[in-house]
Amino acid sequence: MSITFNGIIEFVAVAETQGFSAAARKLNVNVSHISRKVAALEKALGVSLLARSTRNVRLTDAGQSYFSRCQELVYGLQEANETVFDKQVELSGTLKVSAAGEFAEQHIAPLLMEFAQLHPKLAIEMDFNSQMVNFIDDAFDFSIRYGPMKDSSLIARKLTNRSLVAAASQEYLSKHGTPEHPSELAKHHCLMTNNTTWFFSHEDKRLEVKLDARWRSNSGRSVVSACERGLGIAYMPRSSYGDALKNGNLQPILAPYWNRDIATWIVYANRNFLPAKARLAINFLLEHFANWQE
User: Fold this and answer.
1) What does the pLDDT look like over 58-109, one tens digit per residue?
2) Bridge partners (DSSP) listed for residue 91
C-alpha cells in the first residue's frame, strides 16, 4: 500500500475536537474541505475511521488505533516546523514558571537565568510554591514537579530521576540509635515536608511507612536545619540537603531501602497551545538534564 499523508491533519483535528465543524474552526478552513480530506483518507486506507451520525462523530476501533499513532506524527511535524520558525523569532513577553524546593533553586532557576540571557526581550517570573497550580487561571506556562503525577489531563515530560535519602545528625543517632529497617522509624522522631507517609523500596518491593511528624514544614531548608540540630530523621531528595551530606553534618541511614527512581517532571496544560517561549524553555531544560546525575 502506498503511504499517504493527505487528510491526516484533518482527521486528527476531527478526532481531537469530536466534530467536523469544530475541526474546521480549529484549522481555519471550511467544513467541506475537512469532509473531503477525511473521506479521501478513508478511501486510500480502505477502512472507515469515523462513525458519523446527525448528532456526533466518534472514532471506530480502527480509527482509534490510527488516531493514537497519527496524533504523535502531527505533533512531531508541528514541532519540526516550529523549530525552524523558532530560530528566526525573537522571544518576548513573560515566561511564568512554578517550581519549589532546593532542586528548583539550585538547578532550575540558574538555567532559566541562562535562558533569559539568550533572549534579552523575555521576562521570567518564577513562583516557588509546592502546591499544584491552575495553568489557566494562574497563567503559568509550565511547572516543575516531583513524584507521581496524579492529573492525567496534564502533559508531563520527565526531566530526570532523583533519589530519596534518609539522614540524621550524629548527635541524634548517638542519643536515639540508628534504625536498620524503615519499620523502626515509628519509634523515632521524623522531620517531614508535605507527606506523612514515606515510601521505601527493597528487592523491587515497595515499603510504605505512615509516620507522625515532630517537625513539619513545606520548606526543605528548614527540615534540613532541624535535622542538623538533632531534632530527628529526614527523608528527602538528595539535592534537598544542600551541602549537609557532603560536609558530614548529616549521616545517611537506611541506604538499602531508599527509593531511587522518583521522577521530576516538567508539567504543562496542553502542548497544542504551548507558546514558543515555553516550548523553547522546556527543550532547553530537557537538553541540559539529558545526562544529568544527582
Assistant:
1) 899 999 999 988 887 887 777 676 666 655 567 888 999 998 778 888 899 9
2) none
Q: Are 257 and 200 in contact (CB under 8 A)?
A: yes
pTM: 0.63
Q: Provide CATH code, domain 93-162+263-288.
A: 3.40.190.10
- Rounded to 5°, angle at Cα 55 from 53 and 60: 45
- Burial annotation 151-179 (CB, 10 A radius, 16+ → b, else e): eeebbbeebbebebbbbbbeebbeeeeeb
Where do the domains of the chain lie? 8-86, 93-162+263-288, 164-260
Level-2 CATH architecture, domain 8-86: Orthogonal Bundle (1.10)
Second CATH level (architecture) for the domain 164-260: 3-Layer(aba) Sandwich (3.40)
Distance separating alpha carbons of residues 284 and 39, to the nearest angstrom: 40
